[in-house]
Amino acid sequence: MSLLEVSDLDVRFALRQGEVRALRNVSFSLDRGERLGIVGESGAGKSVAAFSLLNLIASPGFIAGGSIRFDGQELTGLSDRALRKVRGNRISMIFQDPMMTLNPVLSIGEQMIECLKAHRRISHREARAIALHKLQQVQIPSPETRLDQYPHELSGGMRQRIIIAIALLLDPDIIIADEPTTALDVTIQAEIMALLLELCEKHNVGLILITHDLGVVSQVTQRMLVMYAGRVIEQGPTREIINDPQHPYTQGLMNALPQMATPGERLNQIPGSMPSLSNLPSGCAFHPRCGFVNDANGQPRRACLEQVPDFVDSGNCRVACHMVAEMLEEEQRLAKEETS
User: Which stretches make up the ABC transporter domain (predicted)?
Assistant: First the structure.
């Protein structure tokens, strides 16, 4: 059994004009010590999926259906008091902007000690010793001095290391990192991701990395999910998806990387934009932007326009695409003809 199992997760927001489904039948799992990437454009549902795991969705959002099982325990429906034993304790989260996460009027040490004492019965002295050790683990220079400093006195990269140290305070089983390097420059991004990877491997901590950066995903994660308009549309081993993307949307993301463009010419891009979740196209949500919506005869596939695609197995990956399903059926038909 996997450490984390998410099945058919359905998240909605109750708005005046009606309910909007932010996540539709999202399913994935995470083993102990495994690293999983979740990628997609802004609005795909990546952060909502992450926040749902700890029921951190702000009102009017709510989990409408599905299951989230952590270490055999069902998390959906748990009271806030019961969830406190999981949040920050066994599952920690690293948010995008450390300045929005850290309290500006408390010193780093006060915040770390407060977090420890909220979950463990330990003395102030013991808590401070643990906080100091965690700062040393994340390679903070002069950690004794940093404990007594305030967030505004630290650089962006230093603040992000502090956030990672806080996430590791209670020795969690899983860390959820929601675009942890967005506000940092490229060199600091690489340092932070290398540090996070090293710590996860050293302590056998599972990692869920939410990002739009396929380069980071390819270097850090072992498996990945590609999301579009609130659904998972492709999932499987990271290396296989990066080397041979099956879904047209994943192919578009790969082709949009700067290194895929011809020097001196415009960068490749996926035409159009992510649809509004309150007004999704019929059938496959990606079909208005898809370059493969037409069949071999140049006619639009009715299935693409009318039916939400089911998952099909392609190698070690699962893909929700009518075109891929047709190609696999054709391959199977030809294989049968050759053997008959």
Answer: 6-254
pTM above 0.70, yes or no: yes
Peptide linkage before 60 cis (omega within 30 of 0): yes
**Residue 224: per-residue pLDDT:** 96
- Distance separating alpha carbons of residues 313 and 287, to the nearest angstrom: 20
| Distance separating alpha carbons of residues 171 and 231, to the nearest angstrom | 31
- 18: which DSSP letter? E
- Residues 279-309 as b or e (16 or more Cβ within 10 Å = b): ebeebbbbbebbebbeeeeeeebebbeeeeb
First to last CA, the chain: 41
Closest CA to 223 of 232, 11, 231: 232
**pLDDT tops 70 at residue 183:** no
Encoded tokens for 125: 């002295």
Q: Is 55:93 a contact under the CB 8 Å cutoff? A: no
- Residue 294 is classified by DSSP as B
The candidate with the shortest Cα–Cα distance to 208, out of 171, 166, 158, 173, is 173
CB distance 5 to 12 below 8 Å: no
Q: What does the pLDDT look like over 253-310, one tens digit per residue? A: 999 888 887 888 888 889 999 999 989 999 999 999 998 998 878 888 899 999 999 9
User: How far apart are the C-alpha atoms of 166 and 169, rounded to whole Å?
Assistant: 5
- Pairing between strand 206-210 and 174-178? parallel
**Please, what's the b/e burial string for 80-118 (b: 16 or more CB within 10 A of its CB; e: otherwise)?**
eeebeebbbbbbbbbbbbbeebbeeeebbbbbbbebbee
**Alpha carbons 93 and 46: distance in angstroms, whole number:** 14
| Averaged pLDDT for residues 63-82 | 92
Give the three-state DSSP class for 14.
strand
